[in-house]
From TrEMBL, chain A:
Residues 34-302 form the Periplasmic binding protein domain. Belongs to the bacterial solute-binding protein 2 family. InterPro entries: Peripla_BP_I, SBP_2_dom. This is Sugar ABC transporter substrate-binding protein. It comes from Aquincola tertiaricarbonis. Pfam families: Peripla_BP_4.
Automatic annotation (TrEMBL), chain B:
It comes from Aquincola tertiaricarbonis. This is ABC transporter permease. It is found in: Cell membrane. InterPro entries: ABC_transp_permease (IPR001851). It is a multi-pass membrane protein. Keywords: Cell inner membrane, Cell membrane, Membrane, Transmembrane, Transmembrane helix, Transport. The chain crosses the membrane at residues 12-29, 50-75, 95-116, 123-141, 167-185, 214-232, 252-280, 287-311.
């Protein structure tokens, strides 16, 4: 009896396996598989990126599988997603690394198996661990808002508050240092992961890119320096928190808040006058370029390489002559999140 | 009642947090001249009010030797429900707020039923409901911040003048809730039952106290406190934030432990929890005023938590 059952099981398994193989090879023949791994699947920025990639893939006859870590910083979740995608036959993996250093061994394993890996939004560390990088130049994003804030402030002595991400994060450092450079302060260069400091920066605090924590940080900075006139923020939720703190203290007039991201909520805050200017980045473009590169690799075997800047635009409704910017309407057309 | 008042007061456990808070305040007062002011103190109260009110519910649960990991996410769900009901469905603000508090209370009820009826460990139950609450929050809000709220919804975040200090209504509400909880735990029979259940559930059951009912009520009441915290969170930030509550569960447990409440149940005072929350707030505020990275606050908190638990263990040993 048991022998018979084993035979039956074996036969059944073989049939299922064969069917799966046929299906897989049919899929392979018909359409290239592309994997997209984001930091989380809840942040609107990555939701938009996923939408963009899915549409682009569909339009070009490819299949996109998406995965993500559980939270920002969840490297293990990204590694798991990558393994599963390679098992599903993905020949190209697009990834926004949660942990730039920790993901490198997994990327190497994938590339050794002939998979092309492209980093989106932020680089792996070292950057040449991936075939290519399609991302915003965060330093440039910082420079743009730094120049704007300096011009908007005019000849008044600057009292700057910076609400940063958290210590040691390259994106946080690049935006902060770029802002300093644009403002005309003595700034570290784009390669530095250290937050620069200057006498004009009267308070530095960590916001973790979160609205409530940004508000707390701004309140404490206001205690320290009641007469702040420029606030740099790592992203728009932190900027909203900063504005809240200023408003509660009756100081929302005459303080210039600048930020980075260009999400739809952030653009609305620019329109409402809460944020003076923001550097908008383009997750849809990163995703679409990633898909194009994947199709190219699947059809011709040619891999993408190097760094491609997906561009950044200053969005403000109070343009200053000599500083290139677009208005809120243009920003809304290209923003991500709920319009 | 079997427990005398002395049993509830491990001397180290209660005095320790107060001493730590005083030392921290003294230290910052010498480091920066902006620290010692009514305005700054009012600010710290505002900054700890959300975690402070969550921690009241958490204290009740920990007093029964349970733990609630879901509190932060449940608070976030409550704030999304009340803001979406008001902003998207256009319900009157009081109704929307009541719905938010009803949802957090329902989660408390679910936690309580699973712990009392199915006899599942609270740690595991609330780990499950943490994930469920998070997922519902993300799905219902589509991970989008809810904005354009009616003014009435953020009224608790507004301030009134007291001398030359602006005090937030929400901070006053938090202090009132602490007084209420302190009174109930100390002066009412129900309060004494909570201590008894935490001290020795079996002995308590044998004396005829309905232990399961006490346990269930504690989880439900904690759910009500999380709902009030939802409202405080909304009134503070002015939005419904789906990403709120990610660190609040451990922050609340930290406040409870720093305040000298024993994780073994049955021992601790609610005012200690407020002191515990204030210690964290004072360090965050003081270090920013000094121009030092707030990461050091995390480091100090870690050390203090271990000291607090060690103090609790010492006093348990000496009580034997």
């Amino acid at each position: 009896m048991p022998a018979q059952r084993t035979a039956f099981h074996f036969a059944a398994t073989a049939v299922v396996a064969a069917a799966a193989l046929c299906a897989a090879s049919a899929a392979n023949a018909a359409e290239p598989v592309i994997g997209l791994i984001t930091k989380t699947d809840t942040n609107p920025f990555f939701v938009k990126m996923k939408e963009g990639a899915t549409e682009a893939a569909k339009a070009k006859g490819a299949k996109l599988i998406a995965g993500a870590g559980k939270a920002d910083g969840d490297n293990a979740g990204q590694v798991t997603a990558m393994e599963n995608m390679i098992a599903a036959g993905a020949k190209t993996i697009l990834i926004t690394p949660s942990d730039a250093k920790a993901i490198v061994p997994a990327i190497k394993k994938a590339r050794d198996r002939g998979v092309m890996v492209i980093a989106l939004d932020s680089p792996a560390d070292p950057a040449d661990a991936t075939d290519a990088l399609f991302a915003t130049n965060n330093y440039t994003a910082g420079v743009l808002i730094g120049q704007y804030a300096k011009a908007a402030l005019g000849n008044k002595p600057a009292k700057i508050v910076t609400l940063d991400l958290f210590p040691g994060h390259p994106v946080g450092a690049q935006r902060h240092n770029g802002f300093m450079k644009g403002f005309g302060l003595n700034a570290p260069d784009a390669k530095s992961n250290e937050l620069g400091s200057d006498a004009a920066i009267v308070c530095q605090a960590d916001s973790f890119g979160d609205q409530a924590k940004g508000q707390t940080a701004m309140e404490n900075c206001l205690q320290k320096v009641p007469d702040v006139n420029v606030v740099y923020t790592i992203n728009e939720p932190a900027a909203a928190g900063a504005f809240n703190a200023l408003k509660k203290a009756g100081k929302d007039k005459g303080v210039i808040i600048v930020s980075v991201d260009g999400g739809c909520q952030g653009i609305r805050d620019v329109k409402a006058g809460k944020i003076a200017a923001t550097s908008q980045q383009y997750p849809l473009k990163m995703a679409a370029m990633g898909v194009d590169a994947a199709i190219e690799y699947a059809t011709s075997g040619k891999k993408a390489s190097g760094y491609v800047d997906t561009g950044v635009t200053l969005i403000t409704d109070k343009p200053i002559s000599g500083i290139e910017s677009k208005d809120v309407k243009a920003g809304t057309d290209l923003c991500w999140g709920k319009k | 009642m079997a427990t005398s008042f002395k049993d509830k007061l491990p001397p180290m456990g209660v005095l320790g947090p107060f001493i730590a808070l005083l030392l921290a305040c003294l230290f910052f007062a010498t480091q920066t001249d902006r620290f010692l002011s009514g305005q700054n103190f009012s600010l710290i109260l505002q900054q700890v009010m959300v975690v402070g009110v969550i921690a009241i519910g958490q204290t009740l649960i920990i007093l029964t030797a349970g733990i609630d990991l879901s509190c932060g996410m449940v608070m976030a769900l409550g704030s999304i429900v009340m803001t979406k009901f008001a902003a998207d469905l256009g319900l009157p603000t009081p109704v929307a707020i009541a719905c938010g508090i009803a949802v957090t209370t329902l989660f408390g009820l679910i936690n309580g039923l699973l712990v009392t009826r199915l006899k599942l460990p609270p740690f595991i139950v609330t780990l499950g409901t943490l994930n469920i609450a998070f997922a519902i929050t993300q799905l219902y809000s589509q991970s989008q911040t809810v904005t354009d709220l009616p003014d009435a919804m953020t009224w608790l975040g507004t301030t009134f003048g007291l001398g030359n200090t602006n005090v937030a209504y929400g901070a006053v509400l938090m202090l009132l809730l602490y007084f209420l909880a302190w009174f109930a735990l100390r002066e009412t029979q129900a309060g004494r039952h909570v201590y008894a259940v935490g001290n020795n559930p079996e002995a308590t059951r044998l004396t005829g106290i309905p232990t399961q009912k006490v346990l269930l009520s504690v989880y439900v009441i904690a759910g009500v406190f999380y709902g009030i915290a939802s409202l405080l969170s909304v009134s503070r930030t002015g939005v419904g934030d789906p990403n709120a509550g990610q660190t609040e569960n451990l922050d609340a447990i930290t406040a409870v432990v720093l305040g000298g409440t024993s994780l073994f149940g049955g021992r601790g005072v609610i005012i200690g929890t407020l002191v515990g929350a204030l210690i964290v707030g004072v360090f965050r505020n003081g270090l920013t005023l000094m121009g030092v990275s707030s990461v050091y606050q995390v480091l100090v908190t870690g050390v203090l938590v271990i000291l607090a638990v060690a103090a609790d263990q010492m006093s348990r040993k000496s009580a034997r």
